[in-house]
Amino acid sequence: ETKARGKGGCTAFESEMDARYRERQKLKSDLREALGAGALQVAYQPMFLPDGSRVACCEALARWTHPERGPVPPSVFIQLAEEMGLVTDVTRFVLRQACSDCLTWPAELSVSVNLSVLDLRTEIVDVVAEILEQTGLNPARLHLEVTESCLMDEPVKVQAVLQELRERGITIAIDDFGTGYSSLSYLDALPVDVIKIDRSFVRNIRKDSRRFKVLLGAVALARSLGLKVVIEGVETVDQLQLLSEHGCADLIQGFVFSAPMPGSAVAALCQKRARKRSAQTSRTLIA
Ligand code: C2E
Ligand code: MG
Ligand code: MG
Ligand code: MG
Questions:
Q1: Neighbours of 126 (CB within 10 A)
Q2: Candidates 42, 47, 57, 61: which one to mutate for ligand 1, based on the most atoms within 8 Å of Cβ?
Q3: Which stretches make up the EAL domain (predicted)?
């Protein structure tokens, strides 16, 4: 009897593993199909000046709505695409869409696209150059984000790729700064222009004063190296106020100002902010 139970438990475990494996394989083949059909979408999350008066840049975020499951988070499908060797197809798709959408926005707006570490092992410079040429977007309006851990993957080669992209006029940002491994020792040598401080530093800034000090230190260090600072994941007015009091960021990205939105909504958002600015200016003039 004991033996039978043991055997039964084992089988249940195995069949659960099987089911998970099959589910993943199904998701992978669905993703392959979606990519082939150009069925991914791109949402854009604006980055604002800290006073909220202006949008400077929008981050392109890949979206996949599965026909049966609904939205699949990018944290899931980007990893699947990486495992399938298809992530550069995702990158190409997002880049092309982002560059053409950016052309429909006010000229002072840039667009920022995330790269996978695997992109940096491909001919990504040629891919980017080709898409810029095809769409006609000024390279000065394109930003590319790489995570800190990407920089540790074959550092010499990665740095050469980033340097080449910069020489073409593209801005390079380190994403999720503070979550990878010790960039402090080589931050001065990296060919980057912007650091995006990870939202884990912001979540608890009122209560966790030690972590807030780490954030302040990272900001000061980045600034002293001539880098621009974006703070991600700012959700509340209170967080925004504290960051502003300390002059922490050049740009703020987070739900406090805006969630990701369709590309077609970006121009309207900019117009709304511009109207607000001119209303404020006329109030100041009258006063
Ligand atoms: P990320 O590049 O750090 O993008 C920011 C993520 O934080 C987005 O999640 C965004 O919706 C979310 N976010 C923005 N503001 C807030 C906030 O105030 N609070 C909270 N809690 N979250 C906020 P999303 O769109 O789910 O993307 C997750 C990650 O997936 C991205 O992190 C990025 O690493 C990756 N990803 C998304 N699109 C692409 C892509 O096209 N290519 C690659 N390689 N990776 C992508
Ligand atoms: Mg990003
Ligand atoms: Mg980020
Ligand atoms: Mg992040």
A1: 10
A2: 61
A3: 24-274
